[in-house]
Amino acid sequence: MRLLPKKSVWIVAALSMLLTGCGEAQASPPPHYKVWSVSQDSWQSRTFVGPQGGIVITMASWCKYCAWEAKWQEPKLLTWGRAHHVDVTLVDISPRGGIGVAGPQNNPNIGKDGSGQYLGTSIQGIKALGHVLQRYSAIYHEPPRQFTIDPTDRTPFAKKTQRLPTIFILNAHGKIVYTFSGITTASRIESQAAAS
């Protein structure tokens, strides 16, 4: 019987494990991010994903385009997310108060940015923004539990936002797999999330 050199044995073993799946790396759990929960009025650790992934919408309470999304698109998106086990979260990334006014469904440009003071990123400012978002959720009929705050850019979603709102599609492992910049219809978001 002919023996293989030690190096050859290791190479054969490694190839065998890869081909049979024994050497596959386990999928890592989704990352957790520290954000302010509006409904809990406290810092919380969130993954932003459900069993089938997640949708994160970065927004600002004062933004008219975010208000348009809140009035015309997000109610459909929240219903779809619940039915498909996809977590939908709104993350306010602006440390300024004020509530935007949504334009009509056929023209988001007619809306109006809300005016409000700069609240800052101190705990008092974040709490104040949380109260603004409580009012926002009542105006636009969205549950406060959907809202979180990240005014200090702790999450990659805040860091990657260049235009409000920005919509991030996440897979079940929390990886960003698609991004929409600016207002986007619920049907486009849903079809992209279903395909991801």
TrEMBL record:
Q: Which InterPro entries match?
A: Thioredoxin-like_sf (IPR036249)
Signal sequence extent: 1-27
Protein origin, superkingdom? Bacteria
Keyword field: Signal
Gene3D superfamilies per the UniProt record, alphabetical: Glutaredoxin
Could you identify this protein by its name? Thioredoxin domain-containing protein
Q: State the species of origin.
A: Sulfobacillus benefaciens
